[in-house]
Amino acid sequence: MLNIQELISLRTDIFDNSKVKLVRHQDSRIEYRDVIKDRKKLIEYQKEQGTNVFGKTEYLVSFIGQESTKSLLFGFFRVRNVEQRENGKFYYDLEEITVCLELIDRVIIDWGNATRAWHQDYRNYKKEVLEILPKGYLGEFPGLTNFILDYDELKRLFENPDANRDWKNHLSSINGIYMILDKSTGNQYIGSACGKFGIWQRWNDYARTKHGGNQLLIDLQLTDSEYQRNFQFTILQTLPSNLTSKEVTNIESLYKRKFGTRFHGLNKN
After folding, report:
1. Domain range spanning residue 178?
2. For residue range 139-163, what is the model confidence (pLDDT) as tens digits?
3. Element at 248 (helix H, strand E)
4. Which of 137, 148, 252, 262 has its CB surrounded by the most CB atoms within 10 Å?
């Protein structure tokens, strides 16, 4: 089987005569769950370490730990400098380099048994490539009410429908009541979708416009052009396709009353 070193060497020789480390980020702390889904936050997280683990390293090949020993390629970084700060921690000046871009977020390797050894020498530890995912792949569809999507994930879903056919097929086939949560404030928006392509069609509006035409979401967007990154999308209830639009609206109104989103949330009506 091909290993990650062989796969990379087919595309670039930048690591051939350099000091390189393989890095696997995985952390069970609650606060880390949001970091791992935000690329910018994860890069900042990687820059700060309690010991000088990258002191003699020129490059990092970084992965995100998944279930068992699987690891997803996250990016390639040049270690430009390091400084020890007053708190005793080491802060690295990392530059993300543009090599093998077609492999990032797609290659899954087997880290092996030593998962506690989260940084390892690139040349001495060969990592088997288990899978190369389709571009833009979100993962297996977990069930209609068993997922939460951040806005960036939502956008990636609609930019890569062929790579996520199961998601498209399921979301196109059902009507339902959905919620958008503003993570920065805790405010909620309740909406409904009914029609030929159901949830898929309605959520495509959010992926395209960032606000879906909802006035209070538009107002938030005016305060910050990247405000949509605070939004999380989830389905609260699926609905039979034979319900009328009036019946769907009545169920939507009931959820608005239950959650109080007209008074303390993001629903204007």
Report:
1. 149-264
2. 889 999 999 999 999 999 999 999 9
3. helix 245-259
4. 252
